[in-house]
């Protein structure tokens, strides 16, 4: 007899909160919380979306085998701290607004998710079922598993997850593995290392958008590559 496995996927606390119910690898239901609250890009815990998924799948909370959250909060907090320290004292106002929220709520999301599930769904041993996946792996999974391909390369481009900005994963059957990734720190070092500083030309910078230039400027300053930073500032000023 084939084992039946129900997985509840969750996204919350950032934007477009949602829930998805997967039964034996097949998507049974998936919906955003805003469809019920009518709040555009609602980031609250997706209580209504979860209940909808359970109702559609005609299962109870007891039948959920795993609950998977789309990113790893501790890794994300590590990135925020290192970024704030790298740019201090710049960004102090943002630091004062963001860090208390993280310490109070986001850093302990596991406890918050469990409390919300117990309060709004059902009293269960959610702690033993709750898993956290890396941000980019979640993106890659959402693209590969619903696709018609048995084997595929999955390229994920995102602003940033925990640390990763770009990743390449290989999907094969029910397996998905990230083979290569570029994180925020290595991207900056690669683009504006000492070896490349002398070869960074004005023409190279002209091909970048203003947003890309601003990101590169942050990277150059973080890596103390002031020569490249000066070139980027000049290009931004000319826009």
Task: Supply the key terms.
11 helices; 5-stranded mixed sheet; 3-stranded antiparallel sheet; Nucleotidyltransferase, domain 5
Strand content: 15-25%
- Please bin the fraction of helical residues: 40-55%
**CATH fold field value of the domain at 1-71 and 90-133:** Nucleotidyltransferase, domain 5
Number of strands: 8
What's the architecture of the domain at 1-71 and 90-133, going by CATH? 2-Layer Sandwich
On the 0-100 scale, what is the average pLDDT?
85
- Segments where pLDDT lies below 50 for 5+ residues? 192-199
- What is the overall silhouette? globular
Please report the number of helical segments. 11
Indicate the structural class. Answer: alpha/beta
Name the strands of the widest sheet in spatial order. 3-2-1-4-5
The CATH superfamily of the domain at 1-71 and 90-133 is ATPase, nucleotide binding domain
Output the CATH class name of the domain at 1-71 and 90-133. Alpha Beta
Distance between the termini: 66 Å
Can you summarize the main beta sheet? 5 strands, mixed
Give the helices and strands as they follow along the chain: EEEHHEHHHEHEEEHHHHH
**Rg computed from alpha carbons, rounded to a whole number of angstroms:** 21 Å
